[in-house]
Design brief:
Elements: E1 6-16, E2 22-33, H1 36-43, H2 47-51, H3 53-64, H4 69-74, H5 76-97, E3 101-107, E4 112-113, H6 115-162, H7 166-184
Antiparallel strand pairs: 1-2, 2-3, 2-4
Helix pairs in contact: 3-5
Length: 201
């Protein structure tokens, strides 16, 4: 029997959290044998399976039930609290069973939702991202609409100040666009005023 510190690992599947989400754990127990002859003589080689395993499973299951999934997965404080409580309960079990074992530490590890729950969480996250993307697109469209309305208001105010009718203002805008186009055209250009058969170069 090895008397140096050792580690026992146990995996647990589908333990229900407080909000009934199924979680998986890969736990570890660090321990040290304090009296090897007594352990072998009175408890045998399968001392863990015969004296600890079932109770350990129940202790972990009961602790997981006290916390919701989000806390178990994301809160280091809650994870440490659960580890401490499980360690304390296992130490008490070892003491009552009179096993010559010293429990050094118990770690449940990170809570992992089972595959079905994880798939649902991923789908929910994708839906939330789609909603955010849609909201951003709507906000951008609203901003563009506001800019266009502000420009239209400014153009209308300028038209009124100049005493132009909407038709005259539109003709002026077209003329400015044509003039800008002619400036950059190679070889010059020909402009035919609206409603006219005359060509202007």
């Amino acid at each position: 029997v090895t008397v140096t510190p050792q580690q026992k690992t146990m995996g647990f599947d589908d333990f229900a959290s407080k909000d009934n989400i199924l979680l998986d754990f890969n736990t570890s127990i660090q321990y040290r044998v304090t009296n090897a002859p007594v352990l072998v003589r009175e408890f045998g080689g399968d001392w863990f399976k015969n004296n600890v395993e079932a109770q350990y499973t129940a202790i972990v299951r009961n602790q997981v039930k006290l916390h919701d999934m989000a806390s178990m997965m994301a809160s280091p404080e809650v994870a440490q609290q659960v580890d401490d409580e499980v360690t304390k309960n296992i130490q008490q079990l070892i003491k009552e069973s009179k096993l010559p074992i010293e429990i050094l530490n118990v770690t449940l590890g990170r809570a992992i939702p089972n595959e079905n729950v994880l798939a649902q969480m991923n789908e929910t996250a994708a839906q939330q991202q789609r909603v955010k993307t849609l909201a951003a697109a709507v906000a951008a469209e609203n901003e563009r609409k506001k800019e266009q309305e502000a420009k239209a208001d400014a153009d209308n105010a300028y038209r009124a100040k100049m005493g132009l009718t909407p038709e005259q203002y539109l003709a002026r805008e077209i003329a400015e666009i044509n003039a800008e186009a002619c400036k950059s055209a190679k070889g010059g250009c020909t402009v035919v005023p609206s409603g006219s058969t005359l060509s202007l170069k």
